[in-house]
Design brief:
- The chain is mainly beta.
- The chain has one domain: Jelly Rolls.
- The chain contains one helix and nine strands.
- The strands form two sheets. It has a six-stranded mixed β-sheet with strand order 4-5-6-3-2-8, with helices on one face.
- A hairpin with a 2-residue loop joins strand 5 and strand 6.
- The chain is globular and about 45 Å long.
- Keywords: Carbohydrate metabolism, Glycosidase, Hydrolase, Polysaccharide degradation.
- Pfam families: Glyco_hydro_12.
- GO terms for molecular function: cellulase activity.
């Protein structure tokens, strides 16, 4: 399990497409689970990147407080800060409609180490990606491309 400071890049590509009804509530995401120690069993931090948000889907860190707008790699995100259980959760929600992501997830981690004091000695435990649908009477989701690779410094 690598420490955040040892990771040079966490490159990933995802292409996706939706057809959906007006009542759809869903999102496309990456979840990064971060531990303080490599032997920890519970998340110390959760970093979520929402690439698409449909309908009224809300992150657990969306506590109705006004989000902070941040720009990561020339894309504007609303940053919500909250908790998921006892773990601080940071959720970056893209502010425009997208159908793909080709980038480095370490850009989000690096932002948090500078702006929110996330410690680079912590460990990246998991990198999850997917599409979560809460409600919909009709719809189709297609993920036509996905890849992820980690490069250590």
């Amino acid at each position: 399990m690598p420490q955040l400071g040892q990771i040079k890049s966490l490159s990933t590509d995802m292409d996706y497409k939706f057809t959906y009804s007006d009542d759809t509530s869903a999102f496309v995401y990456y979840d990064l689970v971060i531990l303080k120690h490599d032997t920890s069993e519970k998340a110390s931090y959760i970093v979520r990147v929402w690439l698409a948000k449909l309908g009224d889907a809300k992150s657990s860190s969306d506590n109705d407080a006004k989000p902070t707008q941040v720009t990561i790699s020339d894309v504007v995100y609303d940053l919500y800060t909250g908790h998921n259980g006892n773990a601080p959760e940071y959720t970056f929600v893209v502010t425009m409609k997208t159908h793909n992501f080709h980038g480095n997830l370490m850009d989000f981690i690096n932002y948090l180490t500078k702006a929110k004091s996330l410690d680079s000695s912590h460990y990246l435990a998991t990198n999850l990606a997917g599409i979560q649908v809460f409600d919909s009477t009709q719809g189709t989701t297609t993920m036509s491309n996905f890849s992820a690779s980690i490069q250590l410094a």
